[in-house]
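PepSY domain-containing protein (Sphingomonas naasensis), 358 aa
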Amino acid sequence: MRLLDLLHRWTGGLIGLVLALLGLSGAILVHKESWIALPHAGDALVRDPDAIARATAKLLAEPGAQSIVYAGDRFGLHQLRTGEGAGLYADQTGEIVTRWSSQWQRPELWLFDFHHHLFSGDAGETVIGIAGLAALLFVITGAILWWRTRRTFKFRLLPKRLSRPAIVMHHRDLGIVVAPLLLLSALTGTMMIFRPVAETVVAPFSGYGIVTTSLKAPKVKSGPLAPRLDWAPILRSAHARFPDATIRILALPRKPGEPITIRMKRAGEWLPNGRTTLWIDAQDGHVLAARDALALPRGAQVFNGAYPLHAAKVGGLGWRLVMTVSGLTLMLLGSLAVWSFWFKRPKPARAAQRPVRA
């Protein structure tokens, strides 16, 4: 048990600050649709394919246009990505509301980049995945260590004082209360970063490897991107294929021979941008392949539920508040763990001096 205690404390002291910052940034991002104060951000969602097509044509005529993330139920603006960190927001008629040339000009963008990549791309994402695995370890070992002292349990939102014993008691007792939420946050976050973790979690539903197999893009060959595509029939055909779905993302090909990709969200999907996908020939607009997310194997559908649970994209305001509690608690536990470990460590006892004989 002493070895377990040492492992828990040292790992927390080393990685607690990363977890604290991830918890705080996650709690803020859960509510980003509410605090992005831009004109038309609260507009009702337009579902008419022809109106969406007109806005699409306007936006994709912008220099450097790469992809569109369409307005949703909680956010009434389209987002066009035009380059490395650059983009714009437009209303649902295609009229531009604001532009940016760098992600640092939009707080929701750099905050998202920090929470997902620590401003360091793939390397930062790997660090976050390791932190997620450490968080899983903390929950499990913390529950084991708490069991010894369960009779002294006292629930407090904050420690009684900033002494090491008070912080340790608060950390232990608050941690066991929110352990299920922390476990869910850590597990779903790690599933999205490390595919083997995701495959292991969903293996009981459809077998190991089903996520990779199910979500692999089909091998299709597209013609070159036409300079002026008629988007109306393309989007009408997409809605005709999945009548209950809303269009969420349209991505232009990055290389010659790649198709246009359209992601849609069917009524039964939790994933905010959906996983129902169509691959469109970039030259004439006909459908090359289609995937219905609700027809995927059970394991793949379980995986698709990880992000909506993690980011509170399902369950309404109630679940957003629950995940806010999870993020703020992680911030509190992580920061106090670092403080108590590095700045409130007990001083080593001095060796007793032997009397000198005359």
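The two ends are 47 Å apart (CA to CA). The chain is about 50% helix and 10% strand. ok done for today
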